[in-house]
Amino acid sequence: MKIVFFEIEDWEKEYISKQFPDAAFSEEKLTQDAAAKFADSEVISIFIYSEITAELISKLPNLKFISTRSMGYDHIDLEACKAKNITVSYVPNYGAHTVAEHTFSLILALSRKIIPSVERAKKGNFDSVGLTGFDLFGKTLGVLGTGHIGANVCEIALSLGMKVLAYNHHEDSGLVEKGVVYKPLDEVLSLSDIITLHLPHTKETEHIINMQNINNFKKGTFLINTARGALVETQAILYGLEQGIIKGAGLDVLEEEGQLKEERQFLSKHFLANEDYKTELINHVLLQRDDVIVTPHNAFNSTEALHEILDTNNANIKSYLNGALVNIVGQ
d(Cα 179, Cα 117) in Å, to the nearest integer? Predict the structure, then answer.
């Protein structure tokens, strides 16, 4: 059986080869030309830059199984695959602990003024005037979105003795039993000392924090976003900071990231070649503010999370080989 992995980085090849020593690897995305070269492939593993169209599928007559190393799968023509009896699998989730931990890295960096403290010490100044922080214990954390990541954020907050309010379409009964209180969005915004976002970017959630509801925030609130930049209207952040509504912000994502679909894109050579994107971020006004901490969309980037993507992908392929399919699109 011919198994081919496309859009593979060197470290991924080394990791995957341990489980599929006879597989073929290509650093390039799957194109019409590449399809001709690998026409005998029965199983392929791809990332989002490989557009699987009906025309491309026609060049892979033996293809039976596609495993995409992503949560999204709109780069694959599912109807064309169905017509050819090709099964498609995906990675339903990963990095739930990784992103939750990064969220609290940002919260703690703000609450204990870690960045200015380090910068001052590096200059040989050990004066602590102006570096007084605050305890998280007893504070109220507002969590927007309680999926895998948001639920872990709630758990960490509870372990630190924080009160947790949550906004989500559906309540998590397990979190409620542990003390999380679900409330409407406006109440979460007005009652929280720290607000953190863990929602997907959809038409419904775009600018869920905006110029209209920023005034509902409790004065002196801290805002954290490790989800998607488009969840928060940039102008609302700037207005909130200038008016003292927001005391500080920890942002791993910015609105200029536009149509970003997968965190893993940040480690792809195809994405890193986008100079226009880099310029937009470099010119971002929030980067210049002392009351804002910006990290380069790095919340997902841990060894464990990246391996989780590959482990799920490998398990998907093995499930096909063993006749017990898992993580199938549409099931």
Answer: 34
Q: Looking at the domain 3-94+304-321, which fold is it?
A: Rossmann fold (3.40.50)
Please count the residues of the chain: 331
Closest among 135, 142, 143, 179 to 158, alpha carbons compared: 179
For the stretch 173-210, pLDDT in tens is 999 999 999 999 999 999 999 999 999 989 999 999 99
Determine the pLDDT at residue 284: 82
Can you give the three-state secondary structure of 80-96, one letter per residue?
HHHHCCCEEECCCCCCH
Q: Are 29 and 46 in contact (CB under 8 A)?
A: yes
The secondary structure of residue 265, as a DSSP letter, is: G
Q: What pLDDT is attached to residue 255?
A: 86
The least confident of 177-181, 183-187, 239-243, 268-272 is 268-272
Question: Considering the domain 96-297 in this protein, what is its CATH number?
Answer: 3.40.50.720
Q: CB burial class (10 A; 0-12, 13-18, 19+) of residue 102? A: buried
Helix axis angle, 96-111 relative to 114-122, nearest 10°?
60
- Quick check: 282 pLDDT over 60? no
Active site residues: 228, 257, 297
Name the amino acid, one letter, at 34: A
